[in-house]
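User: Show me a protein chain along with its predicted structure.
Assistant: Here is one chain, sequence first, then structure tokens.
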Amino acid sequence: MDAGHYFPRSSHFSLRFHLLNIWAQSKYDNQYNEGNRQGARESFIDLFGEDVAQEIDQLPKMHPASRWTAPELCEAYEVCLQLQKEAKSLPMLSQKARVEVRRKYNERLKLY
């Protein structure tokens, strides 16, 4: 498994750290199938519903550009380490709860 970006980092730099843009993805889809965006979108609808798929589709409009400072990125990195530890201790979550955790973690990163 890879951490695949629904919107590629190369063309959507401002979304590279957004947790609604990063999902577990097969290595094949991520590395050789350009992320399989259609398949990913269908999975979003099946797992989380049309409203979440539409929210993800709107990310480039919501965050068209980001210019982070080095201190902001360093702080976000430290927060990421904390979030990673917390996430490992979470119980199995419902699909809705998984999206909510990602939203809350995005807020804590203070990048979006």
